[in-house]
């Protein structure tokens, strides 16, 4: 890997954090781009750009001022618009682009998954009144307005700045990591009938899936779109790509 390389990492996942740390260990110049909500909650020792890029001109100006040669997109795998847009912008600027998207989860014996394409498709699956645990984050709650026949729970790390958007639901506070036993106890305490989540993959969030399996709970799994190419699944593969560049 050439020391002249200057890398921008869109860091919305654990892979983004890891690749930044490993690039720093190799003494490669790297800037982290973190969304305004800073959901990774990681303190970087590298320069950080907060809030993303509103326009192609903003992106081009930032890359030019910082002499960026490569962009590693480690944004959330279920939000492909960022990846599609960044790839297009990089192509126009003749900057090398790579998407890092970890592999998704796959159903195992005992799982009761119902695969849906998007949030709005959950309601036709959960047809009866139910107590539903939405493991999809506060920012996407508006997309479940058609679950008005259910009672909804959404977990937050901190107290939400606004009230729950629907009268048929509430926030639940919790601080990760969550063990399988923790998740089972929570689901039983809340009398959860359904778990809803996006197929983000990774071991860190699997505990809720395993808990649902043990309890026999059905899961509405929101499928992920195809990864934006060129794409790799691991940080090791991303570093090999950079070396080859």
> Could you name the CATH class of the largest domain?
Alpha Beta
Number of helices: 6
Count of distinct strands: 12
Q: Domains counted in the coordinates: how many?
A: 2
Task: Kindly report how far apart the N and C termini lie.
Answer: 8 Å
Radius of gyration: 20 Å
Rounded mean pLDDT is: 93
Order of helices and strands: EHEEHEHEEEEEHEHEEH
Poorly predicted tracts of residues: none
| Gross geometry | elongated
What is the helix fraction of residues, given as a range? 25-40%
Structural class: alpha/beta
What's the CATH superfamily of the largest domain, by name? NAD(P)-binding Rossmann-like Domain
CATH topology of the largest domain: Rossmann fold
The share of residues in extended strands comes to 15-25%
Largest sheet: 6 strands, parallel
CATH-level-2 architecture of the largest domain: 3-Layer(aba) Sandwich
What is this structure, in a nutshell?
The protein is of the alpha/beta class. It has helices spanning 14-25, 56-65, 80-93, 180-189, 206-215, 235-244, and strands at residues 6-11, 29-34, 48-50, 70-74, 96-100, 113-116, 131-135, 151-156, 169-173, 194-198, 219-222, 231-232.
């Amino acid at each position: 890997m050439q020391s002249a390389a200057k890398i921008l990492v869109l860091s919305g996942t654990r892979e983004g954090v890891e690749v930044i740390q490993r690039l720093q260990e190799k003494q490669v110049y790297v800037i982290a781009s973190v969304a305004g909500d800073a959901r990774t909650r990681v303190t970087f020792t590298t320069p950080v750009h907060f809030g993303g890029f509103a326009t192609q001109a903003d992106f081009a100006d930032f890359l030019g001022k910082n002499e960026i040669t490569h962009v590693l997109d480690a944004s959330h795998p279920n939000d492909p618009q960022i990846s599609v847009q960044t790839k297009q912008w990089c192509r126009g600027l003749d900057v090398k682009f790579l998407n890092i998207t970890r592999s998704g989860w796959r159903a195992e014996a005992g799982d009761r998954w119902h695969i849906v394409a998007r949030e709005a498709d959950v309601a036709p699956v959960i047809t009866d009144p139910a107590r539903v645990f939405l493991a999809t984050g506060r920012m996407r709650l508006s997309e479940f307005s058609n679950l008005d026949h259910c009672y909804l729970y959404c977990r937050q790390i901190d107290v939400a700045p606004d009230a729950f958007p629907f009268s048929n639901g509430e926030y639940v506070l919790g601080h990760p990591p969550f063990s399988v036993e923790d998740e089972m106890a929570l689901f039983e305490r809340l009398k959860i009938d359904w778990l809803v989540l996006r197929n983000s993959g990774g071991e860190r969030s699997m505990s809720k899936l395993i808990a649902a399996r043990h309890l026999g709970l059905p899961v509405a799994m929101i499928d992920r779109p195809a990864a934006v190419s060129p794409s790799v699944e691991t940080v090791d593969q991303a570093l090999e790509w950079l070396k080859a560049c």
